[in-house]
Description:
Layout: H1 4-16, H2 19-26, H3 30-44, E1 49-52, E2 55-58, H4 60-87, E3 93-98, H5 103-117, E4 122-127, H6 133-138, E5 143-149, E6 160-175, E7 193-196, H7 202-213, E8 219-223, H8 227-235, E9 240-244, E10 255-259, E11 266-274, H9 281-299
Parallel strand pairs: 3-4, 3-5, 7-8, 7-9
Antiparallel strand pairs: 1-2, 5-11, 6-9, 6-10, 6-11
Helix pairs in contact: 1-2, 1-3, 1-4, 2-3, 5-9
Amino acid sequence: MLDIRRLHMLKTVAARGSITAAAQSLALSAGAVSQQLSALRHDVGVDLLRPDGRTVALTEAGRVLLEHADRILAAVEEAESALAAVKGAVGAAATLAALPSTVARIVAPALTALGAHHPQLTVTCLVTDQAQLRELTLGTVDVVLGQRYQHLPDTAPRGIEVSPLLDDPLVVVTAAGRADERPVALRELATHSLAVPPPTTDCGQAILHACHQAGFAPTTRYITADIAAQLALARAGLATALVPRTAIDPATPGIRTAPIEDRPIMRLLFAATRRTETGNPTTTAVIAALRTAARQGRATHLPPAAPPTSLGNTPGKGLL
Length: 320
């Protein structure tokens, strides 16, 4: 009889690339993971892992077993969701992964509402810039509040269900008094010194893509993924920043924001969970709270944005 916990460990080792990394994510010792994998190898009677430089890789038998393990673990998840639906009650714990730029306007209001409506539910929130959809597939988190920029492919890992939350345009941020709040044509920024995220990030790529489409190469004087740093540089008059609208507190002093009128740069915020046939009341409650907070955040006063790019029937899927 195959042990489900050992199958999950095999899946985690395959994803992390080493027993040590897998043990860290599982909050276990490397020795404990090795012991359980040795027991799994004894159960099946064949090697499942092989050394691969400083990492480990699956053997052919390991790959075959992992394919079945994915289906077995998905079936267990389905059974748990079905039982939770029968009980009809929101559970006691959930883990949410979210981007730093979504905390103030979406995550914090959502968690406050959840605490009021479901006081028995404790939500652990992992705030990180790193891609978390893989963590979702590994079961490390239950809900991901992620983003996709409109120029990126609309794809998501197998077994992940994505629900659109908000079309969030980037706005032009300058020092107060340096510009009016009229909509700005993107090509006007050709003469500006910009504070932008690194080109290796999705946002940085989106800005470069839009500027090239507008016919110019941007002058990127300051490169940082820290939105607070971008706003500080804009407030000081040292640079113009392009920042997602929901990442800016409307009461932030010393800055002025304006929408892009001709070539809007849009990030699509979404909530992702593991796909099951039966909805889980706990993750459903978390996503509902995120959706309400996103809707209320959109209504908060900021300069009008360019018309949003709708996701339609193809939700904003993709790596963060």
